[in-house]
Specification:
Elements: E1 2-6, H1 13-20, E2 30-32, E3 35-42, E4 45-53, E5 66-71, H2 78-91, H3 99-105, H4 112-117, H5 129-139, H6 144-158, E6 160-164, E7 167-171, H7 175-178, H8 183-186, H9 193-207, H10 213-217, H11 221-229, H12 236-247, H13 258-268, H14 276-283, H15 290-300
Antiparallel strand pairs: 1-5, 2-3, 3-4, 4-5, 6-7
The chain binds a DNA duplex (13 and 12 nucleotides) through helix 5, helix 6, helix 9, helix 12 and helix 13.
DNA sequence: CGCCAGGTTAGAG
DNA sequence: CTCTAACATGGC
């Protein structure tokens, strides 16, 4: 079965696909020839779907810009189809109107050129809060390539997989499984003791429902951030990263992020990186769009 | 080899 | 409250 999801004109599928193709170690989706495939669980059923750009301006049966969704391994009923459509819309942040952001920063010193060059680039979300938080912890204080190595080992070892046409499709490890892990499981994957502790702590917080995605989704950004930061290992950077990627708060951004700092340094062509306080001051002019300012700065970084 | 990496915490001052 | 050391190892 397949269907098309309409996308706004400020959407560039290729750029967004580029983000998903960042690391050859990524196991949570596969890509090939302009298409991306991902495994989800609907209830207890594996659902494997494929996305590709849907552009056919000659047709009047679907919009000029859109994403074609094909479900590969099963058939969905109407409720499930609607659920998958919402998932994809959220994944690619299709419901955000970027016009006000572009208008705001079109002449900005840092972002002006970037929003022209990467017009239609959107925040690829991480719809699952647990996955968002653990991935952020893996990325703390190490280079992204190594973070992907850790994630690959973690997902291979503790996630579940579903085979289709000879390829495995992985799902992220569930909190219940992660809560039962220890240093003995994670240090061999080259987690630091700190990452090991933080990962298991987050697993326990979700497994015991001390934290639930549902309860956080009802909070304000400040409330959600405070709640998350009570968990050991989740600081301001991690909380904001997850809130930006999972709940898509447009005003969330990880001010401590070294990628933001380096992007600003490179655009300004200066030797010194800005301080966190300076970044916060700079970002005041992006009020309401801090998450997107962050995205475009990240995109500006070399490879 | 040396410096840096999509930070956070605990402890000192 | 602010500042600093420790974490821990790959990537380049």
């Amino acid at each position: 079965m397949d269907f098309v999801i309409a996308a706004p004109s400020e959407f560039n599928f290729e750029l967004c696909l580029g983000f998903l193709q960042r690391s050859p170690r990524e196991l949570l989706h596969r890509w090939n020839d302009g298409r991306v495939r991902k495994l989800l669980q609907i209830g207890d059923r594996p659902v494997l779907f494929e996305l590709q750009e849907a552009t056919d301006s000659r047709s009047t049966t679907f919009p000029e810009k859109g994403i074609r969704v094909r479900v590969l391994n099963t058939t969905l009923d109407e409720d499930e189809r609607a659920w998958l459509e919402r998932y994809v819309r959220a994944w690619f942040d299709l419901d955000t109107d970027l016009k006000p952001f572009y208008a705001k920063v079109s002449n900005d010193k840092l972002l002006g050129d970037l929003v022209t060059r990467y017009h239609g680039y959107r925040i690829i979300g991480q719809p699952d809060l647990f996955e968002s938080l653990v991935w952020a912890v893996l990325g703390q204080q190490i280079n992204l390539a190594f973070a992907y190595t850790l994630k690959q080992r973690f997902v291979e070892r503790f996630g579940t997989s579903f085979e289709f046409e000879g390829h495995p499709y992985y799902a992220f490890p569930l909190p219940g499984a992660v809560a039962q892990l220890s240093d003995a499981d994670l240090l061999p994957l080259q987690f630091s003791r700190q990452k090991s502790l933080y990962t298991v702590t987050i697993g326990k917080a979700f497994a015991t429902q001390a934290i639930t995605q549902e309860s956080l989704s009802a909070m304000t950004l400040a409330q959600a951030k405070d709640t998350l930061m009570q968990i050991k290992g989740i600081g301001n950077w991690t909380a904001n990263y997850a809130l930006m990627k999972t709940f898509r708060y447009k005003d969330a951004f990880p001010a401590e992020d070294v990628g933001i700092h380096n992007a600003i340094r490179l655009i300004r062509n200066t030797k010194q990186k800005p301080t966190v306080d300076e970044v916060r001051r700079l970002f005041k002019k992006y009020k309401g769009w801090e998450a997107y300012a962050t995205l475009y700065l990240w995109r500006s970084l070399p490879s």
